Amino acid sequence: MALARTFAVALTGMRGDIVEVEADISAGLPAFVLIGLPDAALGESRKRVSAAAANAGCTLTQRKLTVNLSPASLRKQGSGFDLAIAVAALAASGVIPAAPAARAVHVGELGLDGRLRPVPGVLPVVLAARNAGFARVLVPTANAEEAALVDGVEVVPVVGLRAAAIAHGADLDPIEQTPVVLADDGDPVDDEPDMADVAGNDDAVDAFVAAAAGGHNVSMIGPPGAGKTMLARRLPSLLPDLTPEQALETTSIRSLAGRGVAAGLILRPPFEAPHHTASSAALVGGGSGRLVPGAIARASNGVLFLDEAAEFQPNVLDALRQPLESGSIAVDRAAGSATFPARFQLVLASNPCPCGRYGSADEECSCTPAARRRYLTRLSGPLLDRVDIRLTVRRLGLGALRTASDGTAPSRTSRDLRQRVEHARATARERLRGTGWTTNSQAAGTWLRAPERQVAASARGTLDRSLERGAITMRGYDRTLRLAWTLADLDGDGSPTAEHVARALYLRRGAFA
Length: 513
What we know:
This protein is α/β, with parallel strands linked by helices. Helices cover 36% and strands 17% of the residues.
């Protein structure tokens, strides 16, 4: 009789829990028993491990083999436990030295030929192992570059089970195997489009600069061809590079979503643009088995763009309200509960009516006033109350195109505009130092309205009257103050003036005045 152990990691969303994998060989009829609350995919690992061990030249014991995944009350999902189960079983039978196996964390799915296949979520697995104090992690060769993004851990890439046994000191001769490669995720990281491509629409560009500087949400209404999508896709180019913490978080989410991260840490803000037929589960995340991040989490530290926003189902749009306030999204499913980050900038774009021609100078709208109202009210008041900047975007005329093409208009590249954004963010960060906030959009209203930071009464008179008349809510009052501070930071002023407050109030109500 023999007992050996090694370790793996169970992922629940972004959180990784260390799982002790124990293997016991006892007298009795040949059997392979797996216990510890495995799901269906993990339960099938018994057959994968047995076949892989035989084809790798290190056959499992012919006696009764019991493998326990501890803690037993924690749900374990997926095929990423295969390597840990196989190593523990081989250590119990003496093929692998028990001591080194008990000091390492293992992740990987075994093929029947004994080779290791890549699995999603390797980056958060290695992070969890490092945080738990482990210094060595064995991963499939295809996941090696992703795992190497974590400092302070020895990452051992192995092509298969036999190579893993040899890495632990097993007395086996190495054999040459072709590693399983990571499939192309079909989602290349392209160069960001430049704001200089936008001809005219200077007011809209200025509004997007303010949105980038303060982290404010934006809503646009305009006919087809007005440039709404062009503006939205260029917002990430105005945002600063991700901080190291944000880069690690964003890359981990991409790994959990099953997208390749072999190119290294993601340093630029992500951009997510789900189709208007997307369900609330596609935005929120979840799944019947492994809990995967939805579009909201994948857009964290970046931009979530909802084109044709009025065509989304109302329940899908309402699912955005809670994460916009809290900065996180809690996913509760039968498979478990997980919390993902959701600190994103929301950009909504919609036509002014079902036919899209309302307000157009050259086309006549065929929609009735009731149809127009019904169309726009699909964007609920509580959702729009969380949007700081609301724009009406109109189609460009020939004069604007000629001005842009003849070079008389000043060039406004994303690089130049980003420098303004970074300067404004640095000013806000200095003012918010010690609060835990980094942008004006995150600041609490009570903090902004404190006596030592309160905007002068002469400057906020228009805003106070709007609140008194019921034209804006208290949330809208605070959000207008945040936007006014952003405009002041962009202009280099120490405090918002009456002009900044008036501009902020106009940007908040401009599309619906």
